[in-house]
Structure formats: C-alpha cells, structure tokens
Amino acid sequence: MFESLLIANRGEIARRIIKTARELGVRTIAVHSEADADLPFVREADEAVLIGPADPAASYRNYEAILAAAKETGAAAIHPGYGFGSEHPGFARAVIEAGIAWVGPSPEAIEAMGDKINARNIMSAAGVPVAPGTGEPVADVDAAIARAAEVGYPVMVKAAAGGGGMGMAVAQDAEGLPKVFEQIQGVAGRLFGSADVLIERFYPRVRHVEVQILGLPDGRVLTLGERECSVQRRNQKLVEETPSPALTPELRARFMDAARKAGEAVGYRNAGTVEFLLDVESGDFFFLEMNTRLQVEHPITETVYGVDLVAAQLAVAEGRDPGIEVGEPSGHAIEFRVNAEDPKRFLPGPGVITEWVEPSGEGVRVDSGYGDGNTVPRFYDSLMAKLVVSGPDRASALAKAREALKDFRIAGPKQNLPFFLELLDNDEFTSGAYDTGIVGRMR
C-alpha cells in the first residue's frame, strides 16, 4: 500500500478520497488554493500545501506547483479526482516521470480517448457501436455541409477535444449548419485548444447510459453495471440512478459487452466510464465518449455493488488485483447533485453558507465539500454536495429521496434542492420512462 497520497483536487471529491485513504492507513496530502483554505478537505488531510491563488490556472491546473508539492511532502502517489488535471495526459506523464504513482489510466489511454474523432475510430474498429458521423476533422463550412448531407439531419456538431457536455450544438438543416459550425469551431479553439470539429447524427430522443469499468493489472476489464444519467441541464448531469429503468437483461448484457470491448481496445487500467446514447425509438445505442477517470456519480455504483472504487483505484495503481467479484446489483440507488445555482434557470449563485444541515439515516449518504460558515467561491464548479439515496427497489429509493431532500437544509448561496423535489413529482421521471429532454420539458 502506498505510504502517502496527494489529492490533486478540491471539495467533495478530495474529502471522498481522503476518507478511503485514511481507512487504508495512507497519509493524505491536500493541495489547495487561497480561496479554499478554510474548506473541510484541507482540515481533514494529514498535511496541506497552498499551491496558488483562486484562479484554477494558477492553482488546481498549475501542474508544476502540484508536482513541487508532491516532491516536497514525499508523496508516493497522486490521485487527480475528476476535472482539472484528471484527463490531462501531459500531467499524468509528468507525474510518472517524476517517479510518483499516477492513480488513473496510462497517459496513452487518456490521450487516445481525449480526441472524440480518434475515440470514435478506435471504438468502431473494436466493434463498439458508434453513431453515423465523421471519421476525421471537418475542415470548413462547405465540408461540413457535404458531410452532414451524407450523415443525415439533424446533426450534432462537436468539438473533437471537448468534454463535460461542453462544445456541442445541434443543426436541424443545411440552412442552420454554417452558424452552428462556426460557433462550435470558435468554442473548440477557445476552450479546448483545438479547433477540430466532428459531425454526428443527432437523435432527438435519447437516454444517456454509461458503464463503470475497472481495468485490472493483468489486462482484464471488469464492468460494474450501468448508470442512467438522462436528467441533464445544458448537457450536464443533475441526477443519476442505477440500475437504469431502461435496460432489459438482454440490453444490459450488450452494454456490458460493448464497454468491455472499449476498455480492452485501449489497454485500459484503473477506473473509467464508457458513455453511450440509447435511442428511445429504435432501441439502438451508440458510443458517446470514454471518461478516463473516476466519475462524479461513482457513489451509486459503490452502493449497489458493495465496492469502494477509490480503494480499487489505489490497488490497481499499485499493480494489485483489488479482489472485486462482480455480481448482480443489490437494490437501487439515486444521486442528486446539489449545486449552488438557482432551481429555475440553473444559473450559479455562490456565497457564504449560513445554514448547512445534512440528512442522515439508513439508505442516505452525503458526499459534501462544504459546511456551515464556508464560502462557495465563484471560481469553480457549483457542486456543493452529492446526496445518494438507496433502497431495495426504485420505488423505495424514490420515497427515501423525498424524505432526504426535505431534510437537507442549505441557506446562503442559491441551491437547487427545490428542483429535485419538483422532479420527484414529475410523472415522466417517476415512471422511469424519461429521456435527456426531461428538464427542458419541465421548464
């Protein structure tokens, strides 16, 4: 077991990693910005190092400062969490070259999956279903119009290096495509450092279903079930659940097989997620992307499969088999992302927390990054906490969710708890027959 672990992240995921590391007897090192100096993760780590001001580029994306902190504190390993440097192949490579263990997949796997066009081509060659689309960057508007005519409208225009639901937009027809193409090409260059764009067929009614994979040191790729992620705003997830209400046993087996092939195609090691879109009309599903890191929503998988994915990540990074026996899921779990944003338009609303009361009890788990008196800063993602509820079946999990959401009290910053209560009164959601358009229909 690693003697020490530096967590190159912040907030709730840093606390989550610290919790498992402490249980394993591993010394933990937090790095933090000036804005986060008073947050719980800094206090709970065995050691904490200030790495820069609030601006992420000067702190959590300041990889030289993070590496310097690791060397200064004698960290044996670095866990990147999610976001920031977690899918930056250059950071992973620098960590490994410094003689420090990287708790994640190889830089080569991160690089291969970081470009959506390359990822599509690798998956297609491996027999993983992909949506009709382009296998190379689309150079200009004329080329985009020609390729879209081949793919068929409507089309999704995507930044090849994009992720996290950003850098994509729909063109309904040839008249609207030039504006959408130029918009996404500009966003791609500005946000992701590459103006490369691809085009895929857009399916109006889809469900977003992902599969948790774990690549082992001996080359095997385990699949630990699926997560339904179709409750989204601006292509970003708000609620996830497992098992998915949409999958039959036969369809589930096909998802698992495709995800396993995806992991094997890039020699995947450690925890990752293969994301798919399931077309509601046809029942066909297509590869969307592979997230080469731990997902925000990993707790619901832990809940129904009885595993600790962070412990498994550490074991694999050490070259050990984590000893996970994959069985059938036990019960049903739902995660709600509690964000500092208004519940109507989902606009950020950071501020000082004047009241913070978390729900508790059987079947309730809260992974939080904040507490009473803390400030939710404007510099980072608005996620404050994740409420995870579980029960023997979906109906009992929904009932538990209603209780827990009413018991969760937050004052000060804006928060989206009222939206979740509204969602639980929505017949489309409670029936389980919803898709990625549900939030738009509610609004």
TrEMBL record:
Q: Which UniProt keywords apply?
A: ATP-binding, Biotin, Ligase, Nucleotide-binding
Check the record and name the PROSITE patterns matching this protein: ATP_GRASP (PS50975), BC (PS50979), CPSASE_1 (PS00866), CPSASE_2 (PS00867)
Q: Looking at the Swiss-Prot or TrEMBL record, what is one Pfam family this protein matches?
A: Biotin_carb_N
Q: Which residues form the Biotin carboxylation domain?
A: 1-443
- Record keywords: Ligase included? yes
Report the residue ranges that make up the ATP-grasp domain in this protein. 120-318
Q: From the UniProt record, which GO molecular function terms apply?
A: ATP binding; ligase activity; metal ion binding
Annotated protein name in UniProt: Acetyl-CoA carboxylase biotin carboxylase subunit
